[in-house]
Amino acid sequence: MPFKTTRVFIFPDIHGNFQEFKELLKIIPYSPKDSFIVFLGDYIDRGPETKEVVDTVIKLVKTGQAVALRGNHEQMMIDAYKKPYTHYSNFPLETWLCNGGKATLASIKDRDILEEYLKFFEKLPVIYETKNYVFVHAGLRPGFPLHRQFEEDVLWIREDWIKGESPEDRIVVFGHTPTHYIGSEKAMLLNKNKIALDTGSGNKKGHLSVLEVPAGVVYTTRGTYTLFAKEQDNSQAN
Questions:
Q1: Alpha helices (H) in 63-205, listed in sequence order
Q2: What is residue 209's predicted lDDT score, i.e. its pLDDT?
Q3: Which helix (H) or strand (E) holds 210?
Q4: Can you list the residues of the chain whose pLDDT is less than 50?
Q5: Do the domain assignments include residue 2?
Q6: pTM surpassing 0.85?
Q7: Which pLDDT does position 192 carry in this prediction?
């Protein structure tokens, strides 16, 4: 359901980085009266406090003032427990553990809590769309309309999406690929209708960024900057 608010805050990959996540929740001018939050997935792995991150995300989603998408790391965790093999690995458990899963298990020590998280992750959508925006974890397959996108692409795609043309006229906001791989330490506006927001949270040299739309402002614990001018956005928050 499209949000009915004047300002929207988008959080990309958090990756267990609870301290920065918690600080940014204080920094952004969020108010339940006029604000909505979109989480782009990858709450888990790498960082030391996955449990605290997931608990906070679940709490915000339950208020009705936030929506959470599934990322490829949540999918890896689901696959590790429920599939003998996948399109990306013949050994899903080992693949997940080698990509940050060990940190998640160290943070979530209770088996019952782990199973509750798995149920929560399985129910998460992979696309959230409104009149003016499309929110996904990784991107979209060029040349295919939204209703024909494969979940595998929405969760995993990189080069084809970043280098190709968006199949959408709306602005697509995505995470997954850290912007330093594309050429910047900051969030990036690509081709006027793609916003790369993952600035490497959970990695030693990375950090967490939050985008506010339609204002075009990016918030970090290192400072705030404008990604695009509001008048250039030509859209409303919904």
A1: 72-82, 92-96, 102-107, 111-122, 151-156, 159-163
A2: 98
A3: strand 210-213
A4: 1, 234
A5: no
A6: yes
A7: 86
How many Å apart are CA 67 and CA 39, to the nearest integer? 6
Q: Can you tell me the distance from the alpha carbon of 215 to that of 228, in angstroms, rounded to the nearest whole number?
A: 8
Under 8 Å between Cβ of 97 and 200: no
pLDDT of 164 reads 96
1 in a structural domain = no
- Name the 3-class secondary structure at 27: helix
Query: Is residue 48 included in any domain, yes or no?
Result: yes
Question: What sign does the dihedral 133-138-144-149 (CA atoms) show?
Answer: negative
CA distance 197 to 55: 22
Structure token pair of residue 4: 């009915």
In a domain, 41, yes or no: yes
Two structure tokens written together for 29? 């001018």
Cis check for the bond before 214: say yes or no (omega within 30 of 0): yes
Single-letter amino acid, residue 133: Y
DSSP 8-state symbol, 97: I
Asked if 208 contacts 21 with a C-beta cutoff of 8 angstroms, the reply is yes
The domain that holds 154 is classified in CATH as 3.60.21.10
Of the chain, the end-to-end C-alpha distance in Å amounts to 10
The residue range of the domain holding 227 is 7-233
Q: Return phi, psi of residue 118, to 5°.
A: -60, -40
**pLDDT for position 2:** 56
Please count the structural domains in the chain. Answer: 1
The confidence score (pLDDT) of residue 1 equals: 46
